[in-house]
């Protein structure tokens, strides 16, 4: 068995397959075709000298050899991460890697923080993943990244959640909506409105649902959409009103397409958090970015869209 022929690329692919136990989803995560992924897995299996997975019905399972390779691959990448951290510490912050995963709503500000940090430390190689809440929690479970930015820490995982900036949720409507010119609107009046909502499980939707429950409002949900931009387009088209992070409106202020409704209890006061597993040893680069974004977030602690 010539394991020296095994490549890190093959191990990375196999780790993704082992997590998803689905060729198509693993290929999507790695931006590959299922056929290309299958070829790499077959080559790795050939080098190992044993099948790494098996198909039973429609489900895929790891073989005993597959479980051993999975554990070994985790050890390999864990050691490489620690080596990267050691080298970064040895070289100050002139070298190193930073893997950051963010919730979709954070794409309106997080790249600016990351870009400014990388300008300060030009030798750092950064990777940015943008995903919905469920996908981010899966990445967090498998410790795929250094840090995660979310609007709400997952309760089912043991994590450290560092707040760094306010995340006000506002209620938006088309600019010509009848409530746009009114003030101190009672929450009960929202019962007559049609709502455009984010997908179930999203942090924004969870916060909105808590507000409705607190005020005994049963919202009429006209449409559920999976992205902030889609929600904004639906609102602009007159299909209803929506609860969104004020940060999503940063580039829309000049368009005049939206009105932020003055509803009693809004904006909903929430926080953005930098999150990582409680047992994780952060690399020097990750620690430096955490310190940077905490300071920068505090200095920009304002409420857009109010």
UniProtKB/TrEMBL annotation:
The answer to whether keyword Transcription applies is yes
Gene Ontology MF annotations: DNA-binding transcription factor activity; transcription cis-regulatory region binding
Task: Provide this UniProt record's keywords sorted from A to Z.
Answer: DNA-binding, Transcription, Transcription regulation
Q: DNA-binding: is it a keyword of this entry?
A: yes
Q: Do you know which InterPro entries this protein is assigned to?
A: LysR_HTH_N, LysR_subst-bd, WH-like_DNA-bd_sf, WH_DNA-bd_sf
Name a Pfam family for this protein. HTH_1
What PANTHER family does the database record attribute to this sequence? HTH-TYPE TRANSCRIPTIONAL ACTIVATOR CMPR (PTHR30126:SF5), HTH-TYPE TRANSCRIPTIONAL REGULATOR (PTHR30126)
Homology family = Belongs to the LysR transcriptional regulatory family.
Which protein is depicted? LysR family transcriptional regulator
């Amino acid at each position: 068995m010539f394991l020296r022929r095994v490549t890190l690329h093959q191990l990375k692919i196999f780790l993704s397959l082992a997590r998803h136990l689905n060729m198509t989803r693993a290929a999507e995560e790695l931006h590959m075709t299922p056929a290309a992924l299958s070829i790499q897995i077959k080559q790795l299996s050939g080098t190992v000298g044993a099948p790494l997975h098996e198909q039973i019905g429609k489900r895929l399972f790891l073989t005993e050899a597959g479980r051993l390779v999975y554990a070994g691959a985790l050890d390999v990448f864990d050691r490489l991460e620690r080596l990267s951290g050691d080298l970064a510490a040895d070289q100050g912050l002139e070298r190193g890697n930073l893997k950051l995963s963010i919730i979709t709503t954070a794409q309106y500000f997080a790249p600016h923080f990351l870009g400014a940090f990388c300008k300060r430390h030009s030798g750092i190689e950064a990777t940015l993943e943008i995903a919905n809440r469920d996908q981010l929690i899966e990445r967090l479970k498998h410790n795929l990244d250094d840090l995660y930015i979310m609007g709400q820490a997952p309760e089912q995982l043991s994590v450290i959640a560092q707040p760094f900036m306010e995340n006000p949720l506002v209620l938006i409507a088309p600019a010509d909506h009848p409530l746009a010119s009114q003030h101190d609107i009672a929450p009960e009046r929202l019962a007559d409105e049609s709502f455009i909502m984010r997908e179930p499980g999203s942090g924004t939707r969870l916060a909105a649902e808590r507000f409705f429950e607190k005020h005994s409002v049963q919202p009429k949900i006209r449409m559920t959409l999976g992205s902030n931009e889609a929600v904004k387009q639906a609102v602009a088209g007159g299909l209803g009103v929506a609860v969104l992070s004020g940060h999503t409106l940063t580039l829309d202020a000049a368009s005049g397409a939206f009105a932020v409704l003055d509803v009693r209890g809004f904006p909903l006061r929430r926080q953005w958090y930098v999150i990582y597993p409680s047992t994780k040893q952060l690399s020097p680069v990750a620690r430096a970015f955490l310190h940077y974004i905490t300071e920068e977030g505090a200095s920009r602690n304002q409420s857009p869209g109010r």
